[in-house]
TrEMBL record:
This is F-box associated beta-propeller type 3 domain-containing protein. It comes from the Eukaryota. NCBIfam families: F_box_assoc_1. It holds the Pfam family FBA_3. Residues 64-322 form the F-box associated beta-propeller type domain.
Amino acid sequence: MKCVSKEWFQLISSPLFKNLYSTTKTPRALVVKESTKGHPVLFGQPLSRTLFVSTIDISTGETCKEFTKDIIGSHYSFILSDNLILFEKFTAIAVCNPTTHEIVHLPLPSQPTVRYRLGYHQAKNEYKIIHSFRRSENYDLGFEIITLKDGGPVPVTWRTVKFERPSPIRWYFDNTLIDYVDADGAMNWLVDARQGNKGGKTIFQLEMETERFGTIGYPPDHLLEENESEQLVNIQGSLCLAYYSKQSSTITMYLLKDRSDQIWEMEYKIELHDINKNVGNDLRIIGYLPGEDQNGEILIKTNEMKAILYNINTRSFRTIEHIWIGWCKNLYFDRFFTLGKK
């Protein structure tokens, strides 16, 4: 029995098995909820709470509880990626993989600021966690990074990343960060770098292979209209810049075809007025669900917290009436990524 168990453990721990498992699993909608039920209260404030992490199968509506964690105190934050979850409390940082139920603690950063982002480097099957902080009063930014490899170990220190600030970039400290996504082998921030009448919106990115910073300009043929919102999306691994116009009830999606030459192409234009005239202001693209024969679908959350699926092959859409995705943050990819021990 021990021999069988050992062989089985070796099988499921092998890179081939992990890769096969990850590629055959359809991503699910990630839902994070908090509850203070049953927790002690002092002066009307809960002293602790429970964090519930679940996933939803969009096709069936089946909900699967992935992970539950009790958190002491009210001052904490958590940051989500497509698989890992980062918890921060009083500069103490922990990373969790809901698939394996592992939790590891990271070393303390050099500065006590809650500015973290996670990125998955698919080519190397590793995660990058980047921490940004202000080094001076003139908005001089500093960055440090940790790389998590499958099987560990967890690094004991953060590495400084050289950063030459594009002028002007004040985003994290003037509330000018609009959106973030990791795609196309890079960690991408959509930022508003304007100062007065100078500058404009741009995409600020860190290439995960080289750990070098750069910027990408907007598609040259698009001007943001009034009552139009924008976001970054990962579509089949490619960086996508999406615009939603409330006036025309239309989503326009540009894909970055060439990062070095900054070539954008308008890939999809989704007309929503025929399906629902009241999709609202808070419409958001959650992610891309792959299908057979390139018959994938884009998952969209409406103002009514309903799910809309847009088929990129047939260019048609359908609503999923039986699923409420109001708590959905992004898609979750089930990976046997082993965090190891610090």
